[in-house]
Amino acid sequence: MAPPQSSTARADPEDPGGFTGIKSVDKRGTVKVVADTGAYELANNPDGRVVYGARGISAACRAQWPAPDPETGEGPPPSTYTGDVNPHPYATLPGPSGTTFVADAGANSIQRISARGRITTLALMPAQPMEITADLAGAFGIPTCAIGVTYYFDPVPTDVEWGPDGWLYVTLLPGGPEDASFGARGVVYKVHPRTGRTVKVAGGFGGATNLAVTPKGDIYVSEIFGNQVSVLKRGSRTPKRFAALPWATSVEYASGALYATSAPELEDLFAGRPPAPRSTLVRYTLGHHHPSGHKHHKHRR
To answer: CA-CA distance, 295 to 301, in Å (whole number)?
Structure first.
């Protein structure tokens, strides 16, 4: 029997008692609960002692930091804060001996689940630094006394894949602003599957939502805000465009080909318009920079 494939299941926001965790589905369609990662986050909150925000801010400057609007919640992020309870299992990866690795975008971590369902935090992903510039302060209503201070945003892991070197490779959204005016801040890290040691591989991605690693060690990343699939050749620290793809959301490698999805209707959703179904699945034959001709449209209604 083929091993069951892990998947994520999120709680219904209207039902606080809903399940947030990992389930598996075998080839017969049998669904089983692997682990309740929501309960784990609620009980442990592993990054609860991590300080995010402007770590080096003075008390006088902190006193000038505006609070969010009590009605709308709008305003700058807090001057400093600690990790909150926020389970959001975003991607899974089967491991040896029945283990499962989870990229949890809300818990800011990579979790490891044993074959018996025991959850441990393999690695807390690093907080993502950004210098508070005059432009950033003006855009977000941050007091000018904070200009020059480094602000550490929550790390948001979005995918986890095996590399040929036996490490886990992880895409990360960096929290905070990611539009072109503030630079492409997405990152790829690698994490040792036993020790949790975390090493930065490369930055400069515009919304790193997913990745694929080939047997040669080349890394392909879908950039939802960069509107492309980029590639890091083995050993490179500088991503390069592989193919233009508007609103690229995910990418997978199989048998010498790369499969990527795009969701241009997200532009409609962000603009408050009814989304027109335009999602696309594209197949690229590696070694070529153009779709191979196998192109499928997924219509969402």
So the answer is: 20
